[in-house]
Amino acid sequence: MPRLRSEDCEIILRALDNHPTLDPTAERAITRLRQRLSQAISPKAGGHPAPTVSLSRDGRCSCTLHVCTSCRSPGSAREPLENRPGFRLYEKLRETFNKAELPIQVDVLPAECLSLCPRPCGIAISSPGAWTYLFGDQNPEHDTADILDCVSRYAEAPDGFMARDERPQTLRKSILGRVPPLHLLPAGDDP
């Protein structure tokens, strides 16, 4: 995914300001995009630059949902992989997100192992320049709707930050970690 620098964000914001009014769903998506772009060009408190903004090929903000496909409960069979709860969760989430109409692009990707073995099933939500979340204890038979809701809330937060009470109930108690975002490179600096 492309990385945007401050000057790129300013150009996109000017283009959005000149864009004609669209349907309500598109307008909400553009509003969130404007928020993320504005934050990317305004320094955060403490002198740190704001996060990068990640866009999908079609120009929508995007995030990734990683699903541990090797997760299984203690004592359950290792093979076949398709019978593991983690793999079933991945398949159900992929199907759920393919059917969902979200204002952002969500890539549901398999992860061979998230090292959450004592707390199966594990997922991680990430987006360049935003907070990353790690959750365990997800049930492939019951938690897909809450995961969809959580990713939707994550997408609406300009930097991906979700306070405990902003997450669905099942994802309040199952959080295993939250990682701060990497920051935008200052203008003119090469990675």
Describe the overall structure.
The chain has helices at 6-17, 24-41, 85-99, 144-156, 170-173, and strands spanning 62-68, 105-111, 123-126, 132-135, 175-179. The chain has 191 residues and is an alpha+beta fold. It has a five-stranded mixed sheet with strand order 2-1-3-4-5. Strand 1 (62-68), helix 3 (85-99) and strand 2 form a beta-alpha-beta unit. The longest helix is centred in the N-terminal third of the chain and has 18 residues, at 24-41. It is elongated, with a radius of gyration of 18 Å.
Could you tell me the radius of gyration in angstroms?
Answer: 18 Å
CATH topology annotation of the largest domain: Glutaredoxin
Percent of residues in β-strands: 5-15%
Shape: elongated
Instruction: Just name the CATH architecture of the largest domain.
Output: 3-Layer(aba) Sandwich
Helix content: 25-40%
Number of helices: 5
Give the strand line-up of the largest sheet.
2-1-3-4-5
Question: What is the typical, i.e. mean, pLDDT?
Answer: 76
Structural class: alpha+beta
Report the count of strand segments: 5
The CATH class name of the largest domain reads Alpha Beta
Low-confidence stretches: 41-60
What sequence of helices (H) and strands (E) makes up the elements?
A: HHEHEEEHHE
